[in-house]
Amino acid sequence: MEMSLLRKALEYKCWADRRTLNAVGALDPVQGGTSLAFARQQLNHMVRVEENFRARLQSKTIPHISTNTEVIPELQELDQRLTTSNEWLAIYAVGLQTIQIHQTLNFTFVDGLRGSMTPAEILFHIVNHGTYHRGAIGHALDLARAKRPADTYTVFIHALEPQRRDA
Fold first, then answer.
1. pLDDT tens for residues 70-87?
2. Which helix (H) or strand (E) holds 76?
3. What is the residue-averaged pLDDT of the chain?
4. Residue 139 annotated as lining a ligand binding site
5. Which of 8, 72, 122, 124 has a Cα at 20 to 30 A from 14?
6. 136, 129, 120: which is closest to 41 by C-alpha?
């Protein structure tokens, strides 16, 4: 995947995450309590995985020994952490040199299995991983009869570049 497309995918992820966080934040905590709890769990998992991969990209020790927790942080904390993660990823991707994107990084997953990926593969995984879990959150929003945001790449790119609708 060329770097400009990967950067655009990270921009899309940030946009889609924001739409999802806003929709989850609009849930009625009583009527949509089950969906809100599920969404928070999914967001917690997403951000913990991202924080671990960010540490790997920086050759640091991962901050989490699991990909979820028994006690789930409040939505405001998850929002802040996911926003921080998206900001870091965007800055990292811009500064990533061509020679670096294909360097293999070796690490251990939280389940103890060894793995190796390039920075480009890690960034792609983070985008893809977020898409998967936002889809699950979308289903929870449907179950709560809440507004589900349109968060596909096609909606994003046409909102970003409306002239494409006229092409």
1. 999 999 999 999 999 999
2. helix 75-95
3. 94
4. no
5. 72
6. 136
Q: What is the CATH number of the domain that holds 25?
A: 1.20.120.450
Q: Is residue 167 part of a domain?
A: no
Q: What's the rounded mean pLDDT across residues 104-124? A: 96
Contact 50, 126 (CB under 8 A): yes
45 marked among binding-site residues: yes
Range of the domain at 128: 3-162
Could you tell me if residue 108 is inside a domain?
yes
64 annotated among ligand-binding-site residues: no
What are 3's two structure tokens? 């770097």
Domain membership flag for residue 119: yes
Residue 65 lies inside a defined structural domain of this protein: yes
Overall pTM surpassing 0.90 (yes/no): yes
Domains in the chain, number: 1
